[in-house]
Write a structure and sequence with these properties.
Length: about 260
């Protein structure tokens, strides 16, 4: 009997370490800004699958938001709100994969949910990930971008010209990456590009100031957290949604920000 109880306790502790159900749920007055990349099926033995959320999983997540009456915003809409409504969330996609159009967009349309996509303009594939993946992916083309924008659901922001780590380049290169990418996104969309996402989440005070100087109105980081009314809109925290985690992980992240230690 004691052995059985000891085993149960051990299993309970293991589960509690893996799934942080015991953390205090965060207030629904704080907005959830979710970070996605690719919405696609997994590729066998591919470590980049971490960034590939399967379409059926994305559908299940969006259905949960819909059934639980969450309010969807673009990142620029959220950053301008005088008061954040309860159960507010933002869907963001980094890099602008073609599957954001072919797989994610129909699901967003189904639930009438908005999203912000940070694109690396005029690039055809995610060449910057050559060392991290054996399969490079197509990026959005101009026709797809325009169709998504014309739906009224999608905002397009910039993710630099070449997806470079901004902390590794000089001031002239920094200005070029920020300014030219903004101009190219606006040339494609014929609309002001207000939103920016720091590649690899790398930023410092100089980079933030440069983003402001170029004319962006908000920027997102990779740091985990929720968005509150008076937060700095040039360092908006996000909750990363991974393709290698369960739906229970997703629920814990939405409610508690952290799903594991």
């Amino acid at each position: 009997m004691y052995l059985f109880l000891a085993i149960l306790l051990f299993v309970f502790l293991l589960i509690s370490l893996r799934y942080n159900w015991w953390r205090i749920p965060q207030s629904y007055k704080k907005a959830r800004v979710l970070m996605y990349h690719s919405i696609s099926e997994h590729i066998k033995n591919e470590k980049f699958n971490k960034w590939r959320v399967k379409p059926q999983d994305f559908e299940k997540q969006m259905n949960w938001f819909y059934k639980n009456n969450w309010k969807s915003f673009t990142i620029s809409e959220l950053s301008k709100l005088d008061k954040i409504p309860e159960k507010s969330f933002v869907i963001t996609f980094d890099d602008g994969f073609e599957d954001n159009f072919t797989k994610a967009f129909p699901i967003l349309q189904k639930y009438n949910f908005k999203a912000t996509i940070y694109i690396v303009p005029n690039q055809k594939i995610n060449h910057w990930e050559e060392k991290n993946t054996s399969v490079l992916s197509n990026l959005l083309n101009e026709k797809q971008i325009l169709e998504m924008q014309n739906s009224g659901l999608i905002e397009f922001g910039s993710h630099t010209l070449s997806h470079v780590n901004l902390s590794t380049i000089n001031d002239e290169e920094l200005l070029n990456e920020l300014k030219k990418s903004k101009e190219e996104v606006e040339k494609i969309t014929n609309k002001e590009s207000e939103a920016f996402a720091y590649p690899y989440g790398k930023f410092d005070d100089k980079i933030v100031q440069a983003v402001k100087n170029v004319g962006y109105k908000n920027a997102t980081v990779v740091k985990r957290g929720l968005f509150e009314q008076n937060d700095d809109v040039f360092m908006i925290k996000r909750v990363g949604i991974l393709g290698t985690e369960s739906f229970f992980d997703f629920l814990l992240k939405v409610s508690r920000v952290r799903n594991k230690l």
